[in-house]
Amino acid sequence: MDRRPPSAAVLVLHGGHENGTEPPPPGLLNLPGVRMRPFVRALRRATRAPEDGTEVLVRQVRYAHRGWNGARADALRDALAALDALGEEAGDLRVILLGHSMGARAALRAAGHPLVRGVVGLAPWCPPGDPVTQLAGRDVVLVHSNRDRMTSPQATQSLTARARRAGARTCMITVRGGDHAMIRRAPAWHRLTTTLVTGLLGTGSLPEPVTNALGLPPTAEPTEGTLDLDRLRAERGPAGLLPSS
Length: 245
Known about the structure:
The chain contains eight helices and seven strands. The protein has helices at 31-35, 37-46, 74-90, 102-110, 153-165, 186-201, 208-214, 229-236; strands at residues 8-13, 56-60, 94-100, 116-122, 139-145, 169-175, 226-228. Helix 3 packs across helix 4 (102-110). The mean pLDDT is 92.
């Protein structure tokens, strides 16, 4: 069967360092890139072309430099370049950005690109001064462990509130007992991320509490848009999409 041109895409941005102008190491030596491989595999399985031949592209962004590097914002430049290239290749399609740590910061900053419809950020790096106006009109779901010692869950909650006031539809999900590297409770991170990305793409369904949080008014308190993964899992029931570990 002939495949139709892709109508949507997911761009995956891995983590990195605050500073570092050297390129990321190749292959398995690039641990932040390796960390995202299970997410890419899960998304490709979940978005495999159905009988009508439609396709969702799942691509990883390659960085020229391993660090953010201050005002250079190298990861942001790479994300925008990847979006431009995707548009030239596939035309006007819906894109969800999936990023971890520094990659989540790049995803949030690149969300103003006209192809982007939403962002899923895992353990995001959210400095207090980062802009949020580019997130207006986008769906933004940020997932953070309450035990993260590398990036701040409090800063993530603050950004979701600031972005909501700027016109974004936002939600934060807390993974109790997780960690920055997403090794603890890894199956939960993978399954939740797949659920969120496919839900934002429209190829799957979002948990109702997430949909409700995305619909909160700009004046909502930060805690109103903050959900707990284990409560989400309980509400989905034993046959739901969110695992317990």
